[in-house]
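User: Run a structure prediction on this.
Assistant: Running it now.
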Amino acid sequence: MHGVNWFDADMCAAFGAVLYSLGAKLNTIQFTNMSSQIENILAKNGFLGHFGYQQISDNWGTTIPYRRLIAPFPGTAVNIEINSNDTASYKLAAEITTENIF
């Protein structure tokens, strides 16, 4: 990540999907030359925790946690619903019940 001096944390979902896809194909994901500012943000929201980094606590409560939702089997349909109380739930195509994911 040499030369990157800003990374919008809201892009973690898209970036995480790309990295997950690469990692699922037996690639090893490593971050090199990452600025301490970017590392700090991505460690606070838990993104880097999926790549072996230690999570940093958010003392000010300003970070939205990164979450990864993965279908249990490739090609499995997942329906995600945003509820009126600002929570989300998901339902696999073959399931009847839903589980709260945040």
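The mean pLDDT is 77.
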